[in-house]
């Protein structure tokens, strides 16, 4: 009887100890909020170009890596100024060629065509639709604008790129998700391909604006 009582006491202490451990001892997951960096994070893509262990983890806000980097025109963009955006040159396209429709279109490297399609389907189609008509399942509820309208066709490549990076209106920023500039340009290129595939609005110019921006 005494042995049974002793085991019951041990079991009670064990159960109570478990409650104390789970309720009182901080979870290791809480360290993720207390420590801004872990050593393994330097190998993650989203910290590029700070991807080596010998590079300081903390950098001055707004600083640009010594090896170069993309400038930030967020303040200008937020102020509805598009000078920098419109001046951007799309580095992924070559010279123009003439499509069967007679419209001059930019030559896009083949490897970026599939990349742009994939990224567009992942991030854009849910609002703007598979073909850019603004009829995606979410876009129909929010009133997403079509990407094949004459207004969208008139945007420069740099303007479209800036929308992807910083967002505009109801559209949130995607620069933190599509962090590689080349991937952002691939999305821009895909939008141009959607515009080329859609019937041009009446009175549209013969050359697609921004196609070889």
The amount of beta strand, in percent, is under 5%
Q: Residue-averaged pLDDT, rounded?
A: 75
The whole-angstrom Rg is 26 Å
C-alpha end-to-end distance: 89 Å
Helical stretch tally? 10
CATH architecture type of the largest domain: Orthogonal Bundle
Low-pLDDT sequence parts: 97-103, 204-213
Number of strands: 2
Order of helices and strands: HHHHEEHHHHHH
Helix content: 40-55%
Strand adjacency order, main sheet: 1-2
- CATH topology call of the largest domain: Cytochrome Bc1 Complex, Chain D, domain 2
The largest β sheet comes out as: 2 strands, antiparallel
Category by helix and strand content: mainly alpha
Task: Determine and state the CATH class of the largest domain.
Answer: Mainly Alpha
CATH superfamily of the largest domain: Cytochrome c-like domain
Q: What would the principal axes of the Cα set say about the shape?
A: elongated
Structural domain count: 2
Task: Explain how this protein is built.
By secondary structure, the chain is an all-alpha fold. It folds into two domains: 2-35; 74-197, Cytochrome Bc1 Complex, Chain D, domain 2. Helices cover 43% and strands 3% of the residues. It is built from ten helices and two strands. It has helices spanning 2-24, 31-34, 74-78, 83-87, 110-123, 125-128, 139-142, 150-154, 157-166, 181-197, and strands spanning 96-98, 104-106. A two-stranded antiparallel ribbon has the order 1-2. Strand 1 (96-98) and strand 2 (104-106) form a beta hairpin. Helix 5 crosses helix 10 and helix 9 (157-166) packs across helix 10. It starts with a helix and ends in a 16-residue tail after the last helix. The relative contact order is 0.13.
């Amino acid at each position: 009887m005494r042995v049974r009582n002793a085991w019951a006491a041990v079991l009670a202490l064990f159960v109570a100890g478990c409650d104390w451990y789970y309720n009182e001892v901080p979870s290791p997951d809480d360290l993720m909020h207390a420590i801004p960096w872990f050593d393994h994070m330097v190998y993650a893509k989203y910290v590029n170009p700070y991807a080596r262990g010998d590079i300081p983890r903390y950098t001055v806000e707004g600083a640009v890596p010594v090896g170069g980097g993309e400038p930030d025109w967020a303040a200008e963009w937020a102020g509805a100024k598009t000078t920098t955006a419109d001046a951007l040159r799309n580095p992924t396209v070559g010279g123009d060629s003439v499509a069967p429709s007679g419209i001059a279109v930019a030559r896009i490297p083949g490897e970026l065509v599939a990349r742009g399609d994939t990224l567009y389907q992942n991030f854009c189609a849910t609002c703007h639709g598979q073909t850019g008509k603004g009829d995606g399942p979410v876009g129909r509820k929010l009133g997403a604008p079509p990407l094949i309208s004459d207004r969208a066709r008139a945007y420069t490549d740099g303007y479209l790129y800036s929308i992807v990076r910083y967002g505009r209106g109801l559209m949130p920023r995607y620069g933190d998700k599509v962090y590689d500039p080349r991937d952002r340009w691939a999305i821009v290129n895909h939008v141009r391909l959607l515009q080329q595939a859609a019937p041009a609005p009446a009175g549209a110019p013969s050359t697609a604006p921004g196609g070889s921006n």
